[in-house]
Specification:
Blueprint (H helix, E strand, L loop, with lengths): L10 E6 L12 H8 L2 H7 L2 H12 L1 H5 L22 H8 L4 E5 L14 H19 L5 E6 L5 H14 L3 E3 L16 H10 L3 E4 L30 H4 L4 H12 L2 H4 L5 E4 L6 H15 L4 H4 L5 H8 E3 L7 H8 L19 H9 L4 H16 L11 H6 L1
Parallel strand pairs: 1-2, 2-3, 3-4, 4-5, 5-6, 6-7
Helix pairs in contact: 6-7, 7-8
């Protein structure tokens, strides 16, 4: 039996657990050598034994024999289809989802290249990442690869996006942090938005590409606090709090500066950034627009209230521990998306049960929007034609 049965569900967040050397085949020698000198690469190379053991486990017949029955129990590198692409189609079948939007795990933002002086390596690594993702997902059309687009230079952003779209990327990730030398709403990035809009490909934010918590907050004189994985370098309760801050600022800037209005058919997604912030942020933007409209012509030109622009063009994935029903009641049916976060620990063992418990009492239209229809709207032409049927039509069939 599949984990999800009897309903149409699209998965807005799943992951590849990539190996440390996954980009090497896609980089020319001199750039590959430079990437190996990065501190983050060296740190991951120190865990080479971990990657070796993961490969050995998945080569073991007895371990593979238990993969299906442990689909929601094995996490990270132990999960089926975590890094072996030929296993991933059966994961989609076993989960029971119609499609999966696929991201890497060790975000390129962690390379630090966006904020380095080596823009050649920055964009070369992004291009390598994007080709690697397309190759991984090419085994099944239900796997939708995402591509990363650094915004540090206008020409680089446009060129990288063009390459990604041409090779088959289904979503373009942009960092939620602000580029070093210009706003993310700068008019010189309009060719990027126009290209994505024309291709029907959404622009995506994802956790890992945001400004991090000031590490001094951890210096509290108390013992280290373990995270989900037993260390303290992933998210804890305190470092969890600022996760959406960069996205809120960047999205507000894109809305106030008219990017959403200039490209009304372009959709944006905020993935694995939570959603409890959403209703208050929408109301705060409406308040800001009202308070400053008299002196800001850009606000006078907005096509609608910022909250209505959000409902028109932004889609957001809640965490399974959040009250998604409360978010939907206060943000509207159009905005929230289901995600499994497969195969990450944070996704939990039974995300559908947790989400369903919070969706009780909502109309069926809101539930259909959450599990399928909002994703179909977000992905637009990037979703294969055969997967674009709304939930109520699938139910009728």
């Amino acid at each position: 039996m599949a984990y999800i049965e009897g309903r149409l569900v699209h998965d807005a967040d799943s992951h590849l657990m990539e190996m440390v050397d996954c980009l090497d085949p896609y980089l020319e020698h001199r750039l590959r050598q430079r990437s190996h000198e990065l501190p983050v690469f060296r740190a991951r190379m120190e865990r080479h034994e971990h990657f070796r053991m993961a490969r050995e486990k998945h080569a073991d017949a007895a371990f593979r024999a238990g993969a299906d029955e442990n689909l929601m129990l094995r996490k990270n590198y132990e999960a089926k289809g975590a890094f072996i692409r030929e296993d991933r189609p059966s994961v989609v079948d076993l989960l029971g989802v119609a499609s999966q939007l696929v991201f890497t795990t060790h975000a390129l933002g962690n390379f630090g290249l966006d904020r380095s002086d080596d823009m050649e390596l920055c964009y070369a690594v992004a291009d390598a990442h994007n080709q690697m993702m397309v190759d991984f997902c090419s085994v099944d059309s239900r796997l939708l690869p995402t591509a990363y687009v650094p915004l540090e230079t206008f020409e680089g952003a446009v060129a990288t996006a063009r390459k990604a779209i041409d090779i088959g990327a289904r979503g373009l990730i942009m960092p939620s942090w602000c580029p070093r030398n210009h706003a993310p709403s700068h008019v010189s990035l309009d060719p990027l938005w126009a290209m994505a809009e024309e291709a029907g490909v959404p622009m995506l934010f994802h956790v890992g590409y945001e400004d991090k918590m000031n590490p001094v907050y951890k210096e509290n004189g108390l013992p280290p606090v373990p995270d989900f994985h037993g260390g303290d370098d992933n998210f804890t309760s305190i470092s969890y709090m600022p996760i959406p801050n960069s996205a809120m600022q960047t999205l507000a800037t894109l809305i106030f500066d008219g990017v959403f209005d200039r490209f009304r058919n372009l959709k944006f997604g905020a993935i694995e950034l939570g959603a409890s912030w959403l209703p208050g942020w929408m109301r705060s933007m409406d308040s800001a627009a009202h308070a400053f409209m008299r002196n800001e012509e850009r606000l006078q030109k907005l096509s609608s209230k910022p909250s209505e622009i959000v409902q028109r063009q932004l889609r957001v994935t809640p965490y399974p521990h959040e009250d998604v029903g409360w978010v939907i009641r206060n943000a509207g049916e159009q905005v929230c998306l289901f995600s499994s976060d497969y195969p990450h620990v944070e996704g939990g063992r039974n995300p559908v049960k947790r989400f369903d418990s919070c969706l009780e009492g909502l109309p069926q239209s809101a539930i259909d929007c959450f599990y399928a229809d909002n994703f179909i709207d977000l992905m637009g032409d990037a979703l294969p034609v055969e997967l674009r049927r709304p939930a109520h039509l699938v139910a009728a069939e």
